[in-house]
Design a protein that fits this description.
- The longest helix is centred in the last third of the chain and has 21 residues.
- It contains 12 helices and 15 strands.
- Strands 7-6-8-9-10-14-15 form a 7-stranded mixed β-sheet, sandwiched between helices. It has a 5-stranded parallel β-sheet with strand order 2-1-3-4-5, sandwiched between helices. A 3-stranded antiparallel β-sheet has the order 11-12-13.
- The N and C termini lie far apart (92 Å).
- By secondary structure, it is of the alpha/beta class.
Length: 392
């Protein structure tokens, strides 16, 4: 009995060793996927661009895994809804870090969500890497906080310069009461006033408001040369443009990227024609950008806010490159150092990098003008590019 048992154990050991050598049985972390957290606004005011960013990340992961993963290890996204606000972002962050053990998080979509969770990430030594959040205060959030999205500090300078160059001297503003929209308004007004302009009226609205006529009437009664709109949600952006025209306002409208998203333009219809937005945009001459848009459209049957789609996509490929260097999804310090040192070419631009504050360097904004409805197509996204944002 003892001899038979010993023989059986010996046979089982030989089989196990053979299986191990063939890779059938894994005995190390090398067989496990790299697990990366995602925090996007899948609901709430940022739902449209949070969803497109999440889908772009999934597209990138599928491509990487189909090509063999990161040195043979697959990528796995652990996704949480940050809902475009600080409190829900903190809840999502705590779930990813405390329950799932995540040390590298891609997100968030919204500035308020980023500013809510970033202090926790900095304290914990956890990476937060956003393709969409733009509030200027994110620049000083800490050494573990990075973004491929350009700061609203640059957007504000570009917008103020555009307003002045277009002959606007008296401006009215309407702004959603969120960190993102307020950051856009604050920096744009500061530059406009630096150039010599005057703000003659300003209004703010909560994210749950659907009728803006009272605020808009106050703005138009101030007889501004133009109205500047900073919206967190595409629904609000499109509705404000539509209601402005319904009230009889025929003057220029300026904005940031949200009011020229596909949903916003669908809501506004022809009322959006001529609206000018300062935004980042994918270069038609960038083959990678056009390839990403084509693949995204084939997979999901739509495209909106293409630059942010590309930004989210690039973040995954940058993540994969840094994981090649560290070989460890728990090594946030190594990942941080990789981001500080990396220079990248992808969908949103060539040879961009990150400065000492984790801010993207090497990208620039353009001025877009919304086309009449009959000229809007899937390829032009409803607008034409007038050229680079003006400089002083």
């Amino acid at each position: 009995m003892t001899y038979k048992l010993s023989l059986l154990l010996a046979v089982l050991m030989v089989v196990a060793l053979a299986a191990l050598g063939c890779g059938i049985i894994g005995d190390s972390d090398g067989d496990e996927p790299y697990r990366i957290g995602v925090m996007e606004s899948l609901t709430g005011p940022g739902e449209t661009y949070g969803t497109v960013a999440n889908q772009a990340k999934q597209l990138a992961v599928e491509e990487i895994n189909a090509a063999g993963g990161v040195d043979g290890r697959m990528l796995e996204l652990v996704i949480e809804d940050s809902k475009c606000n600080a409190q829900d972002a903190i809840t999502a962050y705590n779930k990813l870090t405390d329950v799932d053990g995540i040390k590298i998080i891609l997100g968030t979509s919204c500035s308020g969500a980023m500013l809510g969770a970033a202090p926790l990430a900095e304290s914990d030594g956890t990476i937060m890497f956003s393709g969409l959040a733009t509030n200027p205060d994110i620049a000083t959030a800490g050494e573990y906080i990075f973004r491929t999205s350009m700061s609203d500090a640059q957007l504000g300078v570009d917008t103020g310069n555009l307003l002045w160059a277009d002959g606007i001297r008296n401006l009215a503003t309407i702004t959603e009461s969120t960190d993102y929209a307020e950051g856009v308004r604050r920096t744009s007004v500061a530059q406009f006033e630096n150039r010599g302009g005057t703000v003659v009226a300003e209004e703010r609205y909560a994210s749950d408001v659907t009728d803006f006529r009272t605020q808009l009437t106050k703005l138009t009664n101030a007889n501004p040369d133009a109205i500047h709109l900073a919206a967190q949600s595409e629904f609000a952006g499109g509705t404000i443009v539509k209601q402005l025209r319904e009230l009889g306002y025929n003057g220029p409208i300026y904005s940031e990227v949200v009011p020229i998203g596909a949903t916003a333009l669908e809501i506004a219809g022809d009322a959006a024609t001529g609206l000018k937005a300062v935004t980042a945009d994918l270069d038609p001459a960038n083959n990678k950008a056009q390839e990403v848009l084509q693949n995204f459209r084939e997979k999901y049957d739509y495209v909106t806010l293409p630059w942010y789609l590309g930004s989210a996509y690039d973040d995954v490929y940058i993540t994969a490159e840094c994981l090649k260097q560290t070989g460890d999804d728990q090594d946030a310090d190594g990942f941080r150092d990789c981001l500080y040192d990396i220079t990248w070419s992808g969908a949103i631009g060539n040879n961009y990098s990150f400065d000492s504050q984790g801010e993207v360097v090497g990208l620039a904004n353009i001025v877009a003008e919304v086309l009449p409805t009959g000229e809007r197509t899937e390829d032009n996204q409803g607008y034409r590019v007038l050229g680079p944002a003006p400089i002083e």
